[in-house]
Amino acid sequence: xxxxxxxxxxxxxxxAQEEAPKTGIEEVEIGKIRASKYQPRxxxxxxxxxxxxxxxxxxxxxxxVLVRVVGEGEYELIAGERRLRAARxxxxxxxxxxxxxxxDEDILELSLIENIQxxxxxxxxxxxxxxxxxxxxxxxxxxxxxxxxxxxxTITNTIRLLNLPVKIQEHVSRETISVGHARVLLSIxxxxxxxxxxxxxxxxxxxxxxxxxxxxxxxxxxxxxxxTHVTQDVHILDAEKQLQYMLGTKVKIKxxxxxxxEIYYFTLDELNRIYExxxxxx
Length: 282
Known about the structure:
Blueprint: H1 5-12, E1 25-29, E2 33-34, H2 46-59, E3 65-71, E4 74-79, H3 81-89, E5 94-99, H4 104-117, H5 123-137, H6 141-148, H7 152-160, H8 166-173, H9 179-185, H10 191-204, H11 208-247, E6 251-255, E7 259-263, H12 268-281
Parallel strand pairs: 2-4, 3-5
Antiparallel strand pairs: 1-5, 3-4, 6-7
Helix pairs in contact: 2-3, 4-5, 5-7, 6-7, 9-11
């Protein structure tokens, strides 16, 4: 499903296999184009950028970048930052552009869509862009879903990655752990346990399925211990009260399946009295 601006972007930026139409394309000095503050992409792979630089040196810029006018002879980039950077590094003074009249919210959407379609954003960059669309432009998850052509649940799950501790987010960005691993970690509320399991994933090379099993077993053990602790405490406290009433002194029960009963006495007479009571019970 590809709707909204996602479809429109294809019409705005010609594909590499097509010859770009002459109408609407201009040559603009690179120094007059400034980066967009709405660019969702934070990191650029040096190796891939170098490949693009080499390609531009050999064939030039095949696809124009998308810009808008922000002043007399000044432009702001909407889409195509990798091409702009590579053209600058290749030593070009000018670059082909398509000039569009675009609103602020549309710039973020177009930048996001272009990067998603080109598979250029890491999961956290994508999540951050979605969050900006929510916070800065009051779009809903459903609105974003229609604009980028992805299921609403995918949008929601991607945004949830921002709930992870920063350290784990960095592992996702660096691909030390996968998005699948991250989603499993999101099912844990305690950040300390999240961090511990994340370290185990990296150290032991756990698959997503192995991580799921680890978390499931951990939760089962925790629930069992909690249930056992609560049940035993209630029964033990009741037993202690009954014995204290029967013996007329302080009694402590220690242990669960195995343990001991401590009966306190404070004088020899009291010891004799307790002894007589126990003897009668026997």
